[in-house]
Amino acid sequence: MAEHGFVPHIVFGLNPLAVSTLILVLTYAVIIWDRFNRAVVALLGAAILVIIGALDQAEAVAGIDWNTIGLLTGMMILVSIARHSGMFQFVAIWSAQRVNANPAGILLLLQVVTAVLSALLDNVTTVLLIVSVTLAITDELDVPPYPFLFAEIFASNIGGASTLVGDPPNILIGSGAGLDFNAFLVVLGPVIVVVMLVQLLIIHITWGRKLHASPEARTLVMGMNAAGMITDWTLMRQSLVVFGLVTVAFVLARWLHLEPATIALGGAALLLLLHTWKGSSEQQTEAVHKSLAEVEWITIFFFVGLFILVHAVEVSGLLGLIADALVSSTGGHLPAAAYAILWGSALLSAIIDNIPFVATMLPVVKGMAPAYGGLDKIEPLWWSLSLGACLGGNATLVGASANLLVAGLGERNGVPFRFVSYSLHAVPMTIVSIAICHLYLWWRFF
Question: Are 249 and 392 in a shared domain?
Fold first, then answer.
């Protein structure tokens, strides 16, 4: 707790660790119940933690990952503006026509595109773009969008796990362990390809082969003029230029010394300016209001509450205790440590945001180096942490940022996402992916 500079003082002298953990568990239970809006529940839980003294207001605000909040908000604004040009509808129709408007083919294509883009960009940005395309396609073909959105959650987290920039935990690990972009791609790339192929097969067996569009709908889609979907060519060009600048900035962020939130919000401000500058002051204000109103604020504020909840248990020492238990249970055996970190990270990332968990585990893993002969001997532990944290986040709706974002966007468009129903499909698939990683680590390192 000293490292945070804050010592909890719970009312009536209650134990901070026990109380913070209890409130986190109760909050998650209510979220799983699905009776109340998850943003309201998370914010209420966060407020209770501050009121009872588990955190003070300054520490609660410090626990919020504003970089993630800024990135999400900025990219949501970009997408909300760009979609009015018709560019996503164009991509939807063009993609559908490439596979003869076959829903199973489209499901396969969108998963591959999502995984590849998530490896190059961050997976949150990717799903923001892909979901809009997906909803347009499924609407035209009159097929249920849920299987597509579910598959894209998995594809985004799997693809993001393969590179340094694809998922926030990998950025933390790369920085803490001194691993570069090429190291992630060379070591994790092969197993991620295998995991992705297995997912494609499972998704096809579960949903793809059962998806059917009527001959009329397919004929209608094949006969559509994709270019005719573009309703505002000027806005489309402006959007593509800004998206291009933002993408380049993401790739060069380390050299530019810029955080993702700065890039995303800067791009959003630029596109807002380009989109509104010709109008009067009143018209500009109306256009900005409209764009901001389309941001998925429920998701944004859910993240705010969740960050505070997790920070409270982090400050209380729970995450540190869990990390220490993972280490002590291995008995100084490197393969056992790697497997424990892999499966333990997967389990915890399914129920607790993987960013604070990975940040807590970094010094713990480094501290194990002397027992195994030095920092150069513990490389398998870093890959175990990366694979477990990134892929374990697929298991529940709260496991990763992309999951919550897709769920929020889906619900905004009338596609319900329920915690339990999602996990019934997601948990077995996650176990399969972690088992594949277990075998890969054994084959490659031990």
Answer: no
